[in-house]
Amino acid sequence: QVTLRESGPPLVKPTQTLTLTCTFSGFSLNTRGMCVSWIRQPPGKALEWLARVDWDDDKYYNTSLKTRLTISKDTSKHQVVLTMTNMDPVDTATYYCAREKGDDVGVYHFDYWGQGTLVTVSS
Amino acid sequence: DIQMTQSPSSLSASVGDRVTITCRASQSISTSLNWYQQKPGKAPNLLIHAASSLQGGVPSRFSGSGSGTDFTLTISSLQPEDFATFYCQQSYITPFTFGPGTKVDIK
After folding, report:
1. Which of A15, A38, A81, B54 has its CA 20 to 30 A from that of A28?
2. A→B interface, C-beta within 8 Å
3. Considering only CB atoms, which residues of chain B are within 8 Å of chain A?
4. Å from B96 to nearest chain A CA?
5. Per the omega criterion (within 30 degrees of 0), is the bond before A43 cis?
6. pLDDT value at position B107?
7. How confident is chain B (107 residues) per 10-residue block, as mean pLDDT?
8. What is the pLDDT of residue B106?
9. Which of B91, B93, B103 to mutate to test the interface with A (most CBs of A within 10 A)?
10. Whole-number Å distance between alpha carbons of B51 and B29
11. Spatial distance between the Cα atoms of B55 and B49, rounded to a whole number of angstroms
């Protein structure tokens, strides 16, 4: 059974650095084709993809946020960590981690999601 | 980055209606297009991957079609549990991008 769970502070101050942890079970990030992504959703708004780490430790980032984001994995702990620097009130959102895998034709999709964690940026 | 658009942004429909949602990519993405359903307060749920492949456990009233830049999600007979917001997402190339969503509510 695949599960993912996000954890992190519910409240951060402007300019602070946010650190979020995704703890997963039911699959290995050492398995070829497995990836984990972070996706966020401001209240009442659309989904926004943030970053991805692959089984071979390749990393990919949102173009407009890449200078602020760092994604890393610890396969022994079954965790993926996302840090976002210089937080601003516009970064207030629910942050999700999701498993990503390729299908038979090589199209990657998010097949399992965590429940999400709401992060509010306010002084 | 590839931009994704959806139409309509919202629609009202009745139980039993056939519903069609359109998604367009700013450049060709072959069939690297996924559809998700999101209910209030919940994480998105994968419905369709690779444009037309039904995810396991998803009812057969959901179907997807298209390739290149134009895609469609169809619900053949809307059920009460289907009222939600639907998002398309391209996985052709990073950075991955989502459409703005289509909210389906009760007429």
Report:
1. B54
2. 37, 46-49, 52, 60-63, 96, 98, 103, 105, 107-111, 113-116
3. 1, 31-34, 36, 38, 43-46, 49-51, 53, 55, 87, 89, 91, 94-101
4. 6
5. no
6. 86
7. 98 97 98 97 97 97 98 97 97 97 94
8. 87
9. B91
10. 10
11. 7
Please state, in angstroms and as integers, the Cα–Cα distance from residue B27 to each residue in B9, B30, B53, following that order.
21, 9, 21
Of B80, B83, B3, give the one whose Cα is nearest residue B37. Answer: B83
Token readout for B36 is 């998700």
Chains A and B: how many Cβ contacts under 8 Å? 67
Q: Quote the minimal CA–CA distance from B47 to chain A in Å.
A: 9
User: Is B91 in contact with A46 (Cβ distance < 8 A)?
Assistant: no
